[in-house]
Amino acid sequence: MSLNQNYWNDRWKENKIGWDIGFASPPIVEYMKQYPNKDAKILIPGCGNAYEAEFLIENGFQNITLIDIAPKAVDNLKIKFHKNPHIKVICEDFFRHNGKYDLIIEQTFFCAINPNKRTDYIKKVLSLLKENGQVVGVLFNKIFEEKGPPFGGLSNEYINLFEPFFKVKTLEPCYNSISPRANSELFINLIKKV
Questions:
Q1: What angle do CA 79, 15, 11 make, to 5 degrees?
Q2: How many domains is the chain built from?
Q3: pLDDT of amino acid 180
Q4: What is the CATH number of the domain that holds 66?
Q5: Nearest Cα to 67, choosing from 56, 79, 53, 82?
Q6: CA-to-CA distance for 64 and 39, rounded, in angstroms?
Q7: How far is it, in rounded angstroms, from Cα 5 to Cα 71?
Q8: Residue 67 has what pLDDT?
Q9: For 133, how many CA atoms within 13 A lie in the half-sphere containing its CB?
Q10: Torsion sign, CA atoms 176, 155, 40, 23
């Protein structure tokens, strides 16, 4: 199976979007409530319905870029945010995106990437982050029985993957996951090493 644009667009057309919880992820909301820089340049890759972006806008954030590879998802977002000058919506493969960001929000994007591409993900994130930029969000802390996506992982695996490139400020179980994901999510706060 190729996890390309056609695959993801078909999932959207067929409404097979099981990752969509219908609102912003509580661990991300809780973190962003206390995030001080409302002018931070924020990227949300593989953003889906971008509930986190809605929350950010409602809370005064001014500079948000949304990327999704699925044209159907992007069309929906362009309608949803068409009057909002603080949100930029792009239909693009994350690995081809260019820009510089203070913060990248991770919400069900990493788990959609084949594990053999995780090193490529890290390289791309590093190229997109400004000095001392951060990645915050949620990762699954479980191995899925079915073939992915989603693709899971465990905390020790993530530490080995991220530690050479990031200061791992936080990588701990979420206390406020939605009930279907309780005890299976980790909150991450990774700071790009200088």
A1: 95
A2: 1
A3: 86
A4: 3.40.50.150
A5: 53
A6: 9
A7: 8
A8: 98
A9: 22
A10: negative
Model-wide pTM > 0.85: yes
Mean pLDDT, each 10-residue run in order, the chain (194 residues): 83 87 95 97 97 97 98 96 96 97 97 95 98 98 91 96 98 93 95 94
Domain span including residue 39: 5-192
Question: Of 113, 101, 122, whose CA–CA distance to 164 is shortest?
Answer: 122
pLDDT at 4: 87
Question: What backbone torsions phi and psi does residue 74 show, to the nearest 5 degrees?
Answer: -65, -40
User: Hey, what are 168's tokens?
Assistant: 């791992």
Distance CA(162)–CA(172), nearest Å, equals 14
The pLDDT assigned to 60 comes to 97
Query: By the 8 A CB rule, do 77 and 47 touch?
Result: yes
Q: Please, which residues have CB within 8 angstroms of residue 112's CB and are 6 or more apart in sequence?
A: 3, 19, 46, 148, 149, 150, 151
